[in-house]
Specification:
- The complex is a heterodimer of chains A (691) and B (117).
- Chain A is an alpha+beta fold.
- Chain A has three domains: 358 residues, no CATH class; 133 residues, Sandwich (Immunoglobulin-like); 183 residues, no CATH class.
- Helices cover 21% and strands 27% of the residues of chain A.
- Chain B is mainly beta.
- Chain B has one domain: SH3 type barrels.
- In chain B, 9% of the residues lie in helices and 41% in strands.
- In chain B, strands 5-6-7-8 form a four-stranded antiparallel sheet, with no helix packed on it.
- The N and C termini of chain B lie close together (8 Å).
- Classes of the chains: A alpha+beta (691), B mainly beta (117).
Amino acid sequence: MRHLTANALLAFIVSTAGQAVAFEVATHRTINEAAAIDSASLDPFLVHHAGLARGLIEPLKGSQVIQWIGLGGVLEDQFQGSETLGGILRSSRHFHNPLLPWDRSGLDIPLLPRFESSVRWAQRADQGITGQAAWADARRAFFEAATGGTDSARQQSYADTFRILGQLMHLVADLAQPAHTRNDMHVLGDDLEKFIDANLQLVTGFSPFDRSIVQIPTADSIARVPVAHIWDTNRYDGANPPGGAASPTFGLAEISNANFFSQETISSLAYADPLRPLPAINVLDLFSVATYKTGENRPYRGKSGNGIRVDRMVAEGIFFRFLPPFISNFALDDYVLTEYASHLLPRAIGYSAGLLDYFFRGRIEIAPPARFAYGLAEYEPGNTGRFTKLRFKVRNATPGEDTGPGQLVALVQYRASVTGQSLVDHPFAPISSELFFAISEPIDVALGGAFQELTFDFSQSPIAIPTNAADVFLTVVFKGRLGLEDDAVMIGGKDLFEPSPIDHANVTDWECFLGVPYPVGDLVAYPSYVPPAQAQRDVNRDGLQDLVGPAALRQLYLKTFDLSQPAPVVSESHFDLSVPQQDAGRYSRVMVLQDQPFHGVAILARDNRLVASGTTYPIIRATAPSPGVYNHTVRGLSGDLVRRVLPSGTYRGLPFHAGFFTLLNDTGPCFDLTLTAAPALTLVAGDTPAE
Amino acid sequence: MLALRSIALSVAMVLAAAAAGEAQSLQYWGREARAPAGWIQLGAGKVHAVEPGAEIPSWGRVKEVHDDRIVVEQTATEAQKRELEALGALVYDVLEIHILREDLRQLMPMPPMKRDP
């Protein structure tokens, strides 16, 4: 009942005050967007780890990432679209006095119960009917986004994540408003807020906090995640106002409380009020006299000690010198507010950006497995195969923070061929606007700082990883303890190259002699050389056999490898594709997922013979570089969407990207003459190794 | 004894020459030593140098010339975008095509084998 009465009274106060209970919405939107841009890690994180190729301008449910963050700054003051209701139900929790214990540091209005402090509100597990926009809610949305099964659900969860983060940034930005840290409800509006809202060009600069402050436990039962120290490090005790080089080691509430007045809290005597001991008029000095825009000369008092140097802390009112000392006649005029803004807004931006950086600080590094290929799949006609398992190395790469036990999940996002055409055969075929997601079975893991190689099983994923995929991006998601934060979520990402066909073709059914190709695979036209009865293989009639093909290759193995490493010894126990026998005019293909722009391919053909004569042939070993295949999207310099394609070529009806072609002697120089020769190469299947 | 020519199987690592739809094949032969230009061959035509900004018929505008590749780009027209959208396909602003250098083709002859029947 008391709460009901309290809320009714507050409703009256707020409705009287209009919407002036925090920075104005335009200011919050601008601060949030500036912080998102200035965040050291957000845009690179989105592009390189989350698979959002356009970063801050990635569209999610119709709005860009940066717009969702800006919108969050607006929505934190609203409920059901109303700022009046928002003022009652949310904005009243946007205060924090750093000189009080956190269970009593919120807005305190006479006759009303004390409201919860913003430092706790930000981590309040249940924010009631006004919606869920606390740290844990952002974490939950982030995990759902990172593991979302559909493009639509993922977009919504990411939008929710950025909107909630924008709401949390709103709380941080409010700490740069002294009224919010000095228990000044500013019922009739606040000049600083109105002034900044009318001068949004002042929302600039960047003044971050020292990152060490979020590496210390909080000891609070509700605000347990150390992000709370962005608010308050609990180091300011009233006698050590933050200033100079040390100010970044304090929370933003401590800085604004200790260094700046709010309109209704211009204290006369230092240390007279335990909740606002500083600044105070009696420790200011006359710094300057300036002609104000109204024409009169105004004395300005400033401070060079007791924290941050501020040249214009207050202006003396026009009647100052004629009023008795118990009547205050100081003003925070536009010159004063301009200087306040120059100190406070860069911190609002810097500390808000720091909240984003802290949220996205977790890093998982991904590296190729010892075998090099992340995924191997046998090629199916029409490129209809799929990868069922991926293997790669992971480690916690978060600076200075260890992870505890947790669960790791891998996701592969990709675009599909809209027409169903093979993207090897038709690399320019339209690809889907929709992203698809294959998700692995979770793995319980203790993620350490050293790489460990894991195999992720996608065989139960409702969405497979097709070999016919474009814009392939791999993410791993860890949920568990990170540093001092329980239930943290970390993401590692890797922009893999598209599934690459690695081919070996036996093209010994065509053989050149003196620059002319002959179809020696036709054993009727070119029977075994038994002169003089069968001398078709002595083309120039000089008594010597000129043509010897075709050849049959047995025990053929292909292996991909990292070009920075020595070429592997390919064998029957160390391969990516094994082909028992490959006759002339046949090709074999393995589909590979890997992460290098160029990688090596090695082959071994152990048992080879010339078909017409039965002559055996030495073991064939060869290595060569092969390009990574891409068919993906990137953000252009002007923010446009670029589709980047590496085209394929065709040899004897076989579209391919790179392949080994085993030729007969002298065929190399006239290889191009056989580009369209018949018959078309046909597939002979091989086997990939068991995982 | 019948003397035979030495024979060898050789293995050619072949990188795909470009082919896009109905366009003539485009081959890239490498970058000019001093100028920011690259040598290309369109179809069976002569090899000639192109600089960034040059138009290659049916392929697009040369965007970048690198040692190992030439990059051409096509800006999607509004009609093309509408067509893609109607298909439910990704609507991009620019199509960027990377053509690898032709002489990246590698021939690796195997040691010839003397055959004595």
